[in-house]
Specification:
CATH architecture of the largest domain: 3-Layer(aba) Sandwich
CATH topology of the largest domain: Rossmann fold
Structural class: alpha+beta
Radius of gyration: 23 Å
CATH class of the largest domain: Alpha Beta
Distance between the termini: 59 Å
Strand content: 25-35%
Number of domains: 2
Number of strands: 26
Largest sheet: 11 strands, antiparallel
Helix content: 10-25%
């Protein structure tokens, strides 16, 4: 990418930057949180913003100005769409950016950016965080520092007015982080059952000329299987740890992390779960059987969902963190597990991605399970009790009719 000069702002390619310098996370002796420790000073900061919002855009430019003035060694990265947005804001740039220094931001393709980031800063709501984390679907996520921009959400511990103090605490290795788990979702396409040509383009891209039927995607919130516009209920065979568990008939099923327990899963009747609880939530969506109730499974569970070949629907919708994926078809399989758990059985060893993890990660095997808590998502936190405060302030948890005394009824 050639350099682009826009008044005070210069846009350069992120390929000029050093590779990621991710921190270590050390359990705090005084709280449930972890200390964020960079072995080398952090340099590359990725900013993710709510798209095309003038208030958020001005806040981002203000933060860029602060970093360039007070941390000249910091390199700010943005995605290409944000770079275009900033590049068109002559007036705002001139009003906010300090004219005594040159301001440079870096951008590139998403696959180029993710190898450069030491810290991710998000400006917006929960959706902005999910979008930022989704860039790192199959790689480690840098620590996330999230600022609320007039939007309430369960993942937004800091007000933007405190942005200078918050960044300083991270930069000086004084910040604390809450660990949030991600789900690792493997989609296995049954091409033989569906014409054999659905992934012809992917097969052509495979340098070994062998069909690639596996896809891996990560979820911060949830993995959802839903009948969509089809009139019939979905028929799903669910296996847990290699054993058949049940066949479901429902509109769909949600597999959620504790972080996602306050999202779609909660609306479908699932339990609210503290983000530190190591588990996977299984929540049915409008099941035919009233005895099919939400479940909380241990994070060590290896879950396999197979679409029954007797399914009356020709396709079933798959969404991950609210983003639509390629539809599933009868005979396809979905394998879900916690990202922090590495299974070492013979079936998984056949998958190259797992073999690489077994070679590269250090840990102790217990009953063919390796626990690696350096994976997942690390969110900079202000205190360990923020979750409880959010339940009360955002959900009005356990509110009674007496709490509404004095408020006028609109009925």
């Amino acid at each position: 990418m050639s350099e682009i000069r826009q008044n005070l702002l210069t846009i350069k390619s992120c390929n000029q930057l050093t590779n990621s310098n991710l921190p270590n996370y050390e359990k705090s002796p005084t709280s449930k949180l972890y200390n964020i420790k960079y072995n080398q000073p952090l340099i590359n900061v990725l900013m993710i913003k709510k798209p095309w919002d003038s208030t958020v855009r001005e806040a981002m430019i203000e933060l860029i100005n602060h970093l360039h003035l007070n941390y000249p060694q910091i390199k700010v990265l943005v995605t290409e769409d944000v770079a275009d947005e900033l590049n068109n804001e002559k007036t705002t740039l001139n009003q906010i950016l300090d004219k005594s220094i040159d301001h440079i931001i870096y951008t590139g393709k998403n696959k180029e950016i993710i190898n450069k980031v030491d810290l991710m800063i998000t400006l917006g709501g929960d959706g902005t965080i999910l979008r930022g984390v989704s860039l790192f679907s199959n790689v480690k996520v840098p620590p996330v520092l999230s600022f609320a921009m007039g939007t309430l959400g369960f993942l937004l511990p800091f007000d933007f007015q405190n942005n200078m103090e918050c960044f300083k605490s991270v930069y000086e290795n004084k910040a604390l982080a809450l660990h949030r788990n991600r789900l690792e979702c493997h989609v296995i396409r049954n091409d033989d059952e569906n014409g054999g040509d659905r992934h012809l383009d992917e097969q052509k891209q495979n340098h070994n000329n062998t069909p690639e039927k596996r896809e891996m995607i990560h979820a911060m919130n949830d993995v959802t299987i839903h009948r969509g516009s089809s009139p019939n209920l979905t028929s799903l065979d669910i296996y847990i740890d290699g054993e058949f568990f049940t066949t479901t008939y429902a509109d769909g099923v949600i597999f959620s992390t504790p972080t996602g327990s306050t999202a779609y899963s909660l609306s479908a009747g699932g339990s609210i779960t503290h983000p530190s609880v190591p588990c996977i939530l299984l929540t049915p969506i409008c099941p035919r059987s009233l005895s099919f109730r939400p479940l909380i499974l241990p994070s060590t569970s290896d879950i396999m969902i197979k679409l029954s070949k007797n399914n009356r629907n020709n396709f079933i919708e798959l969404t991950i963190d609210g983003i639509s994926q390629d539809d599933l078809h009868p005979g396809d399989e979905l394998h879900i597990k916690s990202e922090t758990i590495i299974l070492a059985n013979e079936k998984i060893k056949q998958q190259k991605s797992f073999i690489e993890k077994l070679k590269n990660n250090k840990g102790t095997y217990i009953n063919n399970i390796e626990y690696n808590d350096q994976n997942g998502i690390w969110c900079v936190a202000n205190n360990e009790n923020q979750w409880a405060k959010d339940l009360n302030s955002l959900l009005g948890f356990n509110s009674s009719f007496r709490d509404q005394k004095g408020k006028k009824s609109h009925l």
